[in-house]
């Protein structure tokens, strides 16, 4: 039998600090899909905060570190369309003129995937054993949608979750207003954007909004709770892996999400 | 109306707090976007046409000198005159000289963004020539003394009631004092007033959507027919266009027209597509006696070789504005200069300088919608990022931000130290969140917490938990 593919998990800086559960959910899913998962210790962040602030020198320095840290895995998988896009689309561009790293960055780019896209497109994951009784809606992150072409994959996986009722929101392609440092540099505009998003989510009547990017989720969850709306937020990996016993994003400890899980 | 690009933040705040403005944005909503989607869905070869359109413009930009000279030769051969203007000041003086030679006191104008770029109207007024905008939207904002807020729908921010007030105030001198409230009546009154202006005008100025090198023709697209009357009734027709508008052939124009209207308004074609080729010939029943083309560079030739060159493919359809969540939240005036929205964020720094236009490329979540819908596939986020890099390099980015990013990057380049910082951040934020699991106010993060709670972390960093788990397994 062929050896299990070696997947290196790109944890992402937000999952590391805010929501380790997402990392463990990703590992559980990858292992169920038949992968051998490692977590390279030298990883920190993909460098987007520097890259998008115009600090190209820092971005290049961090890009090289990413290439080094993930050199020997068959695949690199991130529970984030944004970080996966940075690794697969922007790292090769940043390092294109680097005599040592250009080739290595291009090779790495071809092995990088967003979690749900990897599970469906590479692993062909089917028959997911998970249950979530409740109505949910899904927010597509801009980078997953437009840089990665990820839209069908998370929906294919959610369709395998018993009891899950997916209701699509209006203006699915619209940005939630997170945009990395954008949301703190232009907070009023960002809040106007997330308000439209939250209105669309609330209109679905879903009790839970799922997404594949923690940045969007922190933004959406933060606005939902500030407006006192009942909808909760979770990373899609948590539901797919059946890890929904803990509190939702920004929810009180001990207040597991409605609907329950197995 | 006193607007400036460097006041983007204040102007955006004003727009967000203006209920009337927000209502008019909401009413327009996704109208243009939905119309575009329908038009694109109705044309299976749309994406292939986009590729063809991109190829045409890319080829032109690589051979711009050749096509401009060919265009000039053709215009001249047909009895027209081409004026080469390097700067806005040269273009203004040139236009004034043509107007003076024609003895023009009233000039009718078709819609032209390049005229806005060079500040033509105030200049003509200051020199005793009255410019009259004939595009309905442009006419409305001329009465309101405001700049356009959208590339193809200049008065999109105005409500019908505001237009009623403007017409009542400004049309009184023509004996029209009744306040009209129906759209049809407003249009009819504007038409009546403008009809006389067309007849009075000694010169007509139009922009150009395309210049055709093969024939020396200029092309405009309109939905009101105002451009036709502007250019055919007065004795002198002057076309004001920037140099990147040239395309090789009529065939190329037909390709570009097929993507232009669909991207702009969702129409298959604009209502009027008008080709002007030289002045009236012997035997022609009408047309101008003089035909001038003012070609403006304004630094575009400098852009050609740089990282922002692809903005020169723009055909000014406005699709990027219609699909931009930031533009749709704050409107065009917030950007403070002629070109708003994503295309403005990508080209205004070139015209205004990185410092004056600092905020425009920064105020984007990089959602990528603009690039996705751009018929010319201009990588707008990439070009905005280029301007952010220029601002950072030139120390235009505020020192606090530069130091913060560099300090963070320094830390992120040291995994072991970074782990400790992540552990501390996770703990402190979790503690601040307490049992509620969210933080309502956070020092140094007012930008986040003014409008949102900060969800509290789970408490321990992933890497700590992972290390513990690996240790337990051994």
Care to give the gist of this entry?
The complex is a heterodimer of chains A (262) and B (474). Chain A has 262 residues and is an alpha/beta fold.
Low-confidence stretches of chain A: 255-262
Calculate Rg of chain B over CA atoms.
26 Å
Major β-sheet strand ordering of chain B? 1-10-7-4-2-3
Q: Low-confidence parts of chain B, pLDDT < 50 over ≥5 residues?
A: none
What is the overall silhouette of chain A? globular
Q: What is the spatial order of strands in the main beta sheet of chain A?
A: 2-1-3-4
Query: How much of the residues of chain B is beta strand, in percent?
Result: 5-15%
Strand composition percent of chain A: 5-15%
Mean pLDDT of chain B: 95
The coarse overall form of chain B would be elongated
The arrangement of helices and strands of chain A along the chain is EHHEHHEHHEHEHHEHHEHEH
Question: How many strands appear in the DSSP assignment of chain B?
Answer: 12
Query: What structural category do the secondary elements of chain B indicate?
Result: alpha/beta
The number of helical runs of chain B is: 24
Q: Give the tally of β-strands of chain A.
A: 8
Helix-residue proportion of chain A: 40-55%
Query: How is the biggest beta sheet of chain A arranged?
Result: 4 strands, parallel
Radius of gyration of chain A: 18 Å
Instruction: Name the assembly state.
Output: heterodimer
Please render the helix and strand layout as text.
The complex is a heterodimer of chains A (262) and B (474).
Chain A: E1 6-9, H1 13-18, H2 20-32, E2 36-38, H3 48-53, H4 56-69, E3 75-78, H5 81-94, H6 101-111, E4 112-114, H7 115-122, E5 131-139, H8 142-147, H9 152-158, E6 162-166, H10 182-185, H11 187-203, E7 208-211, H12 214-226, E8 232-235, H13 236-240
Parallel strand pairs in A: 1-2, 1-3, 3-4, 5-6, 5-7, 7-8
Helix pairs in contact in A: 5-6, 7-9, 11-12
Chain B: H1 8-17, H2 19-28, H3 31-41, H4 46-62, H5 64-77, E1 81-85, H6 88-101, E2 106-109, H7 113-117, H8 120-126, E3 130-133, H9 136-144, H10 160-170, H11 183-200, E4 203-206, E5 210-212, E6 217-222, H12 226-232, E7 236-242, E8 246-247, H13 250-264, E9 272-276, E10 290-296, H14 300-303, H15 319-322, H16 325-330, H17 341-352, H18 359-362, H19 369-373, H20 380-393, H21 399-412, H22 415-433, E11 438-439, H23 446-449, E12 454-455, H24 462-473
Parallel strand pairs in B: 1-10, 2-3, 2-4, 4-7, 5-8, 7-10
Antiparallel strand pairs in B: 5-6, 6-9, 11-12
């Amino acid at each position: 039998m062929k050896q299990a593919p070696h997947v290196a998990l790109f944890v992402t800086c937000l999952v590391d600090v805010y929501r380790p559960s997402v990392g463990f959910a990703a590992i559980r899913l990858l292992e169920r899909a038949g992968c051998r998962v490692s977590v390279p210790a030298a990883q920190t962040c993909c460098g987007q905060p520097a890259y998008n602030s115009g600090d190209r020198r820092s971005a290049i320095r961090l890009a090289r570190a990413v290439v080094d840290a993930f050199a020997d895995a068959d695949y690199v998988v991130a529970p984030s369309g944004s970080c996966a896009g940075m690794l697969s689309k922007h790292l090769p561009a940043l390092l294109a003129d680097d005599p040592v790293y250009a080739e290595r960055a291009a090779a790495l780019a071809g092995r990088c995937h967003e979690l749900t896209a990897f599970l469906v497109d590479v692993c062909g994951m089917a028959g997911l054993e998970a249950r979530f009784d409740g109505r949910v809606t899904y927010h597509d992150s801009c980078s997953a949608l437009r840089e990665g072409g990820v839209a069908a994959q998370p929906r294919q996986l959610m369709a395998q979750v018993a009891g899950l009722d997916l209701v699509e929101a209006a203006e699915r392609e619209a940005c939630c207003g997170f945009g990395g440092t954008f949301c703190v540099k232009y907070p009023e505009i960002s809040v106007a954007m997330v308000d439209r998003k939250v209105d669309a989510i609330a209109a679905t009547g879903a009790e839970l909004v799922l997404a594949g990017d923690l940045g969007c989720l922190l933004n959406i969850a933060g606005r939902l709770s500030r407006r006192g709306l009942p909808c909760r937020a979770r990373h899609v990996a948590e539901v797919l892996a059946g890890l929904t016993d803990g509190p939702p994003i920004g929810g009180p400890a001990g207040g597991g999400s409605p609907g329950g899980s197995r | 109306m006193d607007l400036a690009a460097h006041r983007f933040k204040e102007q955006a705040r004003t727009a967000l707090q203006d209920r009337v403005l927000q209502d008019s944005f909401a009413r327009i909503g996704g109208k243009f976007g939905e119309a575009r989607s329908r038009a694109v869905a109705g044309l299976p070869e749309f994406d292939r046409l986009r590729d063809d359109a991109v190829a045409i413009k890319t080829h032109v930009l690589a051979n711009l000198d050749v096509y401009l000279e060919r265009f000039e030769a053709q215009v001249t051969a047909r009895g027209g005159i081409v004026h080469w203007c390097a700067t806005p000041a040269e273009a203004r003086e040139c236009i004034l000289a043509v107007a003076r030679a024609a003895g023009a006191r009233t000039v009718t104008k078709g819609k032209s963004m390049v005229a806005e770029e060079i500040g033509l109207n105030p200049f003509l007024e200051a020199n005793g020539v009255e410019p009259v905008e004939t595009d309905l939207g442009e006419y409305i904002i001329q009465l309101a003394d405001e700049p356009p807020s959208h590339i193809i729908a200049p008065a999109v921010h105005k409500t019908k009631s505001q237009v009623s007030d403007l017409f009542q105030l400004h049309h009184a001198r023509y004996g029209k004092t009744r306040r009209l409230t129906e759209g049809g009546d407003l249009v009819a009154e504007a038409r009546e007033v403008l009809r006389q202006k067309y007849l009075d005008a000694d010169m007509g100025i139009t922009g150009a959507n395309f210049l055709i090198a093969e024939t020396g023709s200029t092309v405009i697209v309109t939905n009101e027919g105002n451009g036709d009357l502007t250019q055919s009734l007065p004795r002198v027709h002057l076309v004001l266009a920037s140099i990147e508008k040239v395309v090789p052939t009529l065939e190329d124009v037909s390709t570009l027209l097929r993507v232009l209207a669909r991207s702009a308004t969702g129409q298959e074609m604009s209502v009027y597509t008008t080709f002007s080729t030289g002045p009236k010939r012997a035997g022609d029943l009408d047309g101008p006696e003089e035909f001038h083309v003012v070609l403006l560079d304004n630094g575009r030739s400098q852009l050609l070789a740089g990282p922002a060159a692809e903005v020169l493919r723009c055909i000014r359809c406005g699709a990027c504005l219609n699909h931009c969540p930031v533009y749709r939240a704050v409107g065009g005036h917030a950007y403070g200069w002629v070109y708003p929205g994503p295309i403005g964020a990508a080209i205004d720094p070139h015209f205004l300088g990185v410092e004056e236009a600092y905020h425009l490329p920064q105020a984007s979540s990089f959602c990528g919608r603009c690039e996705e819908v751009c018929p010319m596939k201009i990588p707008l986020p990439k070009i905005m990022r280029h301007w952010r890099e220029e601002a950072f390099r030139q120390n235009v980015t505020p020192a606090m931000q530069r130091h913060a990013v560099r300090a963070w990057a320094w830390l992120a380049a040291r995994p072991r130290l970074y782990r400790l910082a992540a552990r501390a951040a996770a703990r402190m934020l979790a503690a601040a969140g307490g049992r509620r699991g969210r933080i309502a106010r956070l020092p140094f993060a007012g930008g986040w917490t003014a409008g949102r709670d900060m969800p509290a972390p789970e408490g321990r960093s992933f890497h700590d938990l992972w290390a513990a788990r690996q240790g337990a397994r051994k």
